[in-house]
Amino acid sequence: MSAAYKNMHEINGPLSVLVTGSGSVYGLGIIRALKASVLPVEVTAIDTNPYSLGLFFADKGFIALRAADEESYYKFIENLCKDHQIKAIFIGSTAELSFYARNRESLEMSTGAKVFVNSPTVIELCTDKWLTMCHLSRSGFQIPTSIRYPEDAGMLSSFIESTGFPLIVKPRGGRGSEGVVLVKDKQQLLENVKGKKDLIIQEYLTDEEQEFTVGICMNQKGKVISKIALRRYLQEGVSIAAVSDGYHDIADYCARVASTLGAYGAINIQLRLKDGMPVIFEINPRFSSSTGMRLLFGINEPESLIRSEVLCQEVIPGCAATGLVLRQYSDYYFPLDKLNSLSTARLHHIK
């Protein structure tokens, strides 16, 4: 069942939206969802890399400045939004989340565009995996048994004794599966923590067949406008297959997590089941690499956000269709004119 909408506002002309980091897996997922929407959406995509596929899928594509040069990047985005009457900004680059979180209010005031990004507090809490675990535990949600390293090195022996091997070692601030190591004995553990800091050592949740990725979208008023739980299968840290088979209880559980965080826009929660109960091990305060997969199950997260926040419609979350989605990579051909036009278009927006 698709999402339901109330208080339909009349739409005059195309709705122009901006997608940043359009070459990432989730940047492309956002673009695909927007292009599939029944709304008259016109997509402008930006990326620092001219060979990013999203630039070619969008209605308009521009090579972006780097967000690290904040003043120039801010001006670039401001000009782009004003020139193209952008109504909403979707962030497809993890590296840009902090910039948009800090500048959200200012950009919304100067351009009139809604910026779908979580607050700096939420981003900091979710980016630091130890802070994530602390928040979840305080809020009454189940987490894997965890200690910090080297801060809790004195507890290491008792932790090993009570938890047992295998264990997970990962950086507090890593992205996705980056730097995550499964260690099977004490020697392996010591080899992987020696001389390092800012680590978490964590209970390994053994049931790989019960791993879920859960997408929640929240509006400005803290209301859930979209939710979906998918059982997923990973290859090198990326979902390559997803099953939708109800899982409403898991989606509702994660919606409560998003509410305790005070999330806004998209948030993505990773968990495994232990004794039939969800145990969350990671929260990403952004759209997911499975955004495009969710679309195929009938859940269009970007459209729900536009309807709620730009068109001021009441959005009632829909139920995902049941089924299986498999991910495979494809090749695309474009004429050289398209590539050459990107650099020319960029120059127009540097004023």
TrEMBL record:
Tree of life domain: Bacteria
GO molecular function per UniProt: ATP binding; carbamoyl-phosphate synthase (glutamine-hydrolyzing) activity; metal ion binding
Name of one Pfam family that matches: ATPgrasp_Ter
Keyword Nucleotidyltransferase annotated: no
Record keyword Ribonucleoprotein present: no
InterPro entries: ATP-dep_AA_Ligase (IPR052032), ATP-grasp (IPR011761), ATP_grasp_subdomain_1 (IPR013815)
Limits of the ATP-grasp domain: 133-310
Entry EC no(s): 6.3.5.5
Record's keyword terms, sorted: ATP-binding, Ligase, Nucleotide-binding
Official protein name in the record: Carbamoyl-phosphate synthase large subunit
Native source species: Anaerosolibacter carboniphilus
